[in-house]
Amino acid sequence: MEKLIYTYDVIDLKRKEHRDALVSLMNDYMLDEMGLGRELSEDLADKIISGLQKQNNYIGFLLKTDKKYVALANCFVGFSTFKAKKLLNIHDFVVTPEYRKRGAGYTLLNKISEYSRLKDFCKVTLEVRDDNFNAMNLYKKTGFQDCNPRMYFWENLL
Fold first, then answer.
1. What is the pLDDT of residue 151?
2. Domain ranges of the chain
3. Which of 29, 105, 109, 112 could lock onto 142 through a cystine, CB 3.0 to 4.6 A?
4. What are 60's strand-pairing partners?
């Protein structure tokens, strides 16, 4: 298998190319077995873009090879009161299916950690389904680990 060269961009939602890549990759996420199993509607795609444009704490990352965007991370800046520093939470992370197990996810996670160190964030966090073993293996390879003490992600649907 050929070694791929990846480049990454911090998303600029003013750029149509970045908006289109974000929507395309979110659609891959929606269609995945770990997603909702159905395509992203045009209405929801528009709402995602307009909603992200309103978030002053949004940072997105795209990974590209061969002039094609192949991975996406939608992230949000938070604040750790224990460390009195910013943190970065990866909210969505997706690699398009044909680039999985080809270093794309590994590269993007490392670029996000590098960016976060340069910006003096205290940590990068993410959530993962307890049945998503492929994702967990990738995350472990890039230095992520279960929180100590173990944390759980809870929700209150409104």
1. 86
2. 7-141
3. 109
4. 74
